[in-house]
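=== Structure Prediction Worksheet ===
Name of assembly: unnamed complex
Input type: mixed (protein and possibly other molecules)
Chain count: two
Listed entries:
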Amino acid sequence: HLSHTNFTKYSLTKLLIRNQLVEQFKCLEQQSESRIQLLQDLQDFFRRKAEIQLEYSRSLEKLAERFSNKIRSSREHHQFKKDQHLLSSVNCWYLVLNQTRRESRDHATLNDIYTNNVIVRLAQISEDVIRLFKKSKDIGIQMHEELVKVTNELYTVMKTYHMYHTESISAESKLKDAEKQEEKQFSKSADLNVHLLRHEDRPQRRSSVRKIEKMKEKRQAKYSENKLKCTKARNDYLLNLAATNAVVAKYYIHDVSDMIDCCDLGYHASLARTFRTYLSAEYNLETSRHEGLDIMENAVDNLDSRSDKHKIMDMHNQVFCPPMRFEYLPHMGDEVCQVSAQQPVQTELLMRYHQLQSRLATLKIENEEVRKTLDATMQTMQDMLTVEDFDVSDAFQHSRSTESIKSVASETYMSKLNVAKRRANQQETEVFYFTKFKEFLNGSNLIIKLQAKHDLLKQTLGEGERAECGTTRPPTLPPKPQKMRKPRPRSIYNHKLFNGNMETFIKVPTHESVNMDSIVFMVNHFLVTLLVSVIHALLSLLP
Amino acid sequence: HLSHTNFTKYSLTKLLIRNQLVEQFKCLEQQSESRIQLLQDLQDFFRRKAEIQLEYSRSLEKLAERFSNKIRSSREHHQFKKDQHLLSSVNCWYLVLNQTRRESRDHATLNDIYTNNVIVRLAQISEDVIRLFKKSKDIGIQMHEELVKVTNELYTVMKTYHMYHTESISAESKLKDAEKQEEKQFSKSADLNVHLLRHEDRPQRRSSVRKIEKMKEKRQAKYSENKLKCTKARNDYLLNLAATNAVVAKYYIHDVSDMIDCCDLGYHASLARTFRTYLSAEYNLETSRHEGLDIMENAVDNLDSRSDKHKIMDMHNQVFCPPMRFEYLPHMGDEVCQVSAQQPVQTELLMRYHQLQSRLATLKIENEEVRKTLDATMQTMQDMLTVEDFDVSDAFQHSRSTESIKSVASETYMSKLNVAKRRANQQETEVFYFTKFKEFLNGSNLIIKLQAKHDLLKQTLGEGERAECGTTRPPTLPPKPQKMRKPRPRSIYNHKLFNGNMETFIKVPTHESVNMDSIVFMVNHFLVTLLVSVIHALLSLLP
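=== Predicted Assembly ===
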């Protein structure tokens, strides 16, 4: 029999193992169920997210379509809007719509990828998890059967050993009994030998001794046999014990881990590929967005009031083309076509010339002052108008609080108070600018008129003086009149209409050597424009 | 009087100018109206886009919330799910939800920026356009009045010149008349002088001559006066003509452009700032998205089945903790606790030992073959499982056709046919792998048992030999038994449970010098685990 303690020890270990095996399966099953649940959640999630992408995509598409249609019909109905897209500001608006369409398309693509790729993958992984769990459990059952087998074997060999040892003990005690009897017999016969020589009861005693010896021999044989059996059984037990412990250790160190690996087979890799598909889609959406935004940003960088102004003037060429100069229309038969500076008007003209000269000097100084103020005011306005108040990155800070979305309108540059203050300031400056501009305009108009008269007088008087001198030296023409109005230094004012050709044109009638081709071209151009305008003017005169 | 041609010329030029001025205003007005329309469209657009952002944001928020709630309640109800987030796969899922929440917040921010910043700016620009158009028109009116004024003045001085020239011509003809009369008188008196000297009618004739001379003088004076007047008028006309042409030229070259500039004042700059606000918002949204995706990508890179397996085993420590070794339980009084290799079992044991040795050699070779097949199969599976099939950038190509969204599921790697083929292939390999794995498991279980027995026998027989020799030389222990099962080369199998501590632990009872601290720690750890398991086992035995 096994001792009670030994039995308990063995059984407890075996029970513990069996219990763990059951729990291990439970654990694997739980894990697989968790995974299936996770995969189901992911599928549900992406199904709904795909829907959201589609809704978003459709909303954006509708939005872009609405305004594109509006632009299309407006172009059809208003001739003058046909070339609007050439204007940099309108171009930005069209690009905003393009970007919206691009976003719409990209989010539709996202929907497609979620639905036809990500979700399909997730469903497959789910199948894999179920299938692999079953197969791994099969493997596990095989492993567990092995454990049960070896522990049962161990139990068997242990029982055998204990049985043989019990028998061995009993054989030993029987042998010992026999040995004691033999000893007793021996001491008895030694006593008798001393007292009784040649007795008639000797054969009887001899047969008794032989009997005892025989028994002892028998018991000795039995004992040896049992002892050998027991030794073999113990050896078997010890060898099986080592084997069992080795198998159990292997199971816990390697096999159980291998079983989990079987369960996991490809799970992480497939899941990673699914997430990478999702990431690839999202990153690509982002790249596409970014490309669109860059195009947009480029268009914003190219917002240019000067170029837009020139485009508008080009579009309305007839309206902004300078008219023909007023010609000198002499009275019938009057052959004089120049200012005459002979006496008696010479003195008066000279006086007038000097008056004009001093008047102009004063006016120019005054107007230059106005111009400086105007430029400074414009600079102030430009600073207000180009203030870099458009960075909204603060609104996208996630780090601190995840809950509260910072309102962009509060606290910042765009707060109502700030905006109102800025606008009031801006409009005040604007009013001042316009006042000064009118003043400058009046001044410069006066100056240009006086300057024209002054220059003509100067030229005339120079010729007159020459005429009076009557010498043969080449005429020293008075210096060509300076253009009164210097272009203002700010580039915004420093433009030239029609690429400056107009100034060339204006100069033609008054001056000497000009490229004939360009004159012919300009005159032709001007004439065509003029004729169209004349027809226009005449038509408007009809009742 | 002006000649008809001259009058027409002057009037046409003046009419052309007036007509152009009207058209210029119309053009400016049209342009301003276009701008107001554009700004209105932009406001409408961004208002609707803001709504779409909010809808999108809310949908995403609801989606994330739905699954977050599910996770929360699942954690509360299932104890074992509490630490699930430690698993790399579950972590990815949580990050997908985080990213969704982040997107939701960012799109809500976009809504806020559109509504409270972009639209506000657009409305302000609209106001500016209206106000500046009015002010610019005022300036324009002033400019036009100046043009009308100078052209009217020119007309007046031209008329004056023509009038004086007419008068000058008439005075000249009258003077010529008088000169003719004087000449006639002169020739008559010369005739008389020849025929009549000292005549009585001389005084009468002298008075007639004096009368003619007086008239001539008067007419001469009148003519000179008129000629001077005419010269002055012509000079005035020529000077005014120059001034007028200068003013007109200035208007067409500079003033009209300045007027447009006044209209444009700040329009492009403000529009640019508005678009830049939009761009800043969009770029920041993108940056935020990107940050989130990078976190996500990092988590996907860290998807790790090995670490997850260890975490699961740690979480279920009791279930995976190796049990106590089966102890040798000797029968009462049996003091032998080792395999005995004395005669008569020695021969048999030796024979058994040699049999085991040759059996093991064969088995190991066989099982090594199985292992090689297994590894190759695993490699094939790994290649299938880690194929890089997740790039969906093709779906986001906008360049070619803007209309057709390429379906990701068609043609590509994810096509149904391809997927089915791949999966069939994968599962076939899987089946083969499991068959081989079972084979390998059987083989290695057998080997480990035989090896344990073999090692024990080897040790015993070695000791037995030593004991028989009875020499004093130090015992030459048989070489320590090699671990039968070599760790497989694939790192996925090359793990150690509990950071390999278990193996150390397993070795403790059989071997010599081990750090006592670590033994104490391990034993404590093991005992605690064991006691818990025992209690568990005992509880499960209760009726």
